[in-house]
Design brief:
- The protein is an all-alpha fold.
- It has one domain.
- The protein has five helices and no strands.
- The N and C termini lie far apart (69 Å).
Amino acid sequence: MCCMKTDMGNWLKLNFWLSMNPGGLTQGVIRVIIVFLISLFVAVVVLKLLKNRKRNLYNKIWNKLYFFSFTNLIIGLVLLFFSYEMLPFLSMRLWFLLWGASMIVWLVFILKVLNEIPKVKEKMAKEDEYKKYLP
């Protein structure tokens, strides 16, 4: 971690997040963001393959995760470009904070859909049991 020279005490200061010209990102932070963006790209490819498979109970989840990964990959690339170019206002660290918060909120909504799957399975089992006795 020799490349990450950020004082953690700055993270609690408002000026750290709202500085219009925060300067460039350190090499360590850039590497972390690039690794995260590569993992999002891999997720986009895998989820694209999964969502094109035969219809099943999890297709809604795969579809939501695909759009989550694709959208956040594009946003991350744009934020990384703005920070690399050190554009005033667009390279603010606040955008990274908002991006992270939006990902957390989006994942909470995906988890809510994931928690509904056992109920859907139970409902499908009851329907199959009922249809078994129909002519």
